[in-house]
Amino acid sequence: MASGRRTDTRFDDIIFPEEIYQKKEAKEIYEKTSKDLISFFDYLLDKGTKKDEASKILPYGIYGTGIIQMSVESIISLKKEYEKEKKWMPEEVGILLKKIEEISKKEGFDWLYATRLCAPKEIYPFPNIFKDPKKENIVRELREKNLKTKIISFNLNFTKNLIKKIKSYLKKRKEIFKSLEKIKKEWLSLLRERETIIRDYNLAFKIKILSSVPWRVWGEKKRHRTCPMIVESIYFCIERAKNVFLKYKKQIEKEKISKKILEEIEDVFDLPPTIKKNFLFSYLKTSLKSFESYQKLKNLGIKEKSALFLIPRALKIDVMQEYDLYNLLCGYFPLRACSKAEEFLQRITWQEINLIKKELEKRKLKAFSELLGPKCFFLGFCPEKNWCPLIKKANKNYNHHFHQEMFKSLESFYKKFLETI
User: Fold this and answer.
1) Amino acid 1: pLDDT
2) How far apart are CA 51 and CA 96, in angstroms?
């Protein structure tokens, strides 16, 4: 999909669900509120707010482009989920499935699709936010008011040989990182050693973490398919946030918000740092209007699955996610702890890292805290175009000249490999 972090948002990008488009009053409410949200987003950008923070005010109903690649098994999973939650899933899911089924015979997978769909077996349960809000789930049962990111379970099976291998790896890494020249020559061997440890001991580490993240960030989290997760219904989260905003409507409009009220709002709706500091009340008023419009649409008979297109993506969704050794050392934490990651996701990742460090310390494994950090901590160099000060914690001798040298070295490595194919 085209990244929203790299594309512009205009009024022309507003999506109109069919039932809203067909009702004049509903269309007017929807269009005005959507434009107000986009206008406020533009205002925040004009005032110098980072796009990661500003974009959370944008509604869900914004046009996007991309290429979807799905296995037959994934299509069947989507089909079954759609049949179970048809009342709650956006209409484009049904449109997509209809298009796929129309071409199934032409493309030659109609028999496979039909037999797999009708087989008396279940499909792997992928996370879905578009589901019946009345149905309980483990996330709702474990969540507390004013949820702070917390560890639900922490299972370690660090055997003697695994501890020995990790210590050897950390010792080797420390030695290599002392020399810029060694990093250039031996970074790949470090990666291969890490890969081998993960391959042979991946299940030695299992941790479940419960957190509440903005809808915008849920879009990032769900991309990590190697992290099993359970997520709350988006409709449950909308009603929860709507009730809080309407409860404090007068205080928001009069710009008289106590610390306690602010905490209650932030429990269900993200308030990015810069916005919280400089644009708090205009942000809250704009968000309040979107929830009021959502309710107006419902009062006009618009279904929740259409009305939700008005909701800003700062809405918080509760998620429980499980991580193994692969995601600790490679697949998730090193990527999301990087300063190039989405701002909230980076913040919450470091919160999770600090929680894991505390648990390691309790088990007298404090030394293994060195395994936690952004991807540059494992490489000895920054693989991004522009490097940041984080790399200095892993490599105190890092500089711009070496950064450029590494990029030339990587390009040369790529070209040599290409010649062998």
Assistant:
1) 55
2) 30
State the Cα–Cα distance between residues 177 and 394, nearest whole angstrom: 7
Residue 180 confidence (pLDDT) above 90? yes
**Residue 296 CB partners (closer than 8 Å, separation 6+):** 29
Distance, CA of 31 to CA of 15 (rounded, Å)? 9
Rounded CA separation 310/289 (Å): 10
| Residue type at position 316 | K
Q: What is the pLDDT of residues 316-339, one digit of tens each?
A: 999 999 999 999 999 999 999 999
Distance CA(114)–CA(140), nearest Å, equals 35
pLDDT of residue 265: 97
Indicate yes or no: pTM above 0.85: yes
Contacts of 33 by beta carbon, 8 Å cutoff, 6+ apart: 59, 289, 290, 293, 310
What is the rounded distance in angstroms from the CA atom of residue 300 to the CA atom of residue 293? 11
Question: Cα–Cα distance between 288 and 67 in angstroms, integer?
Answer: 34
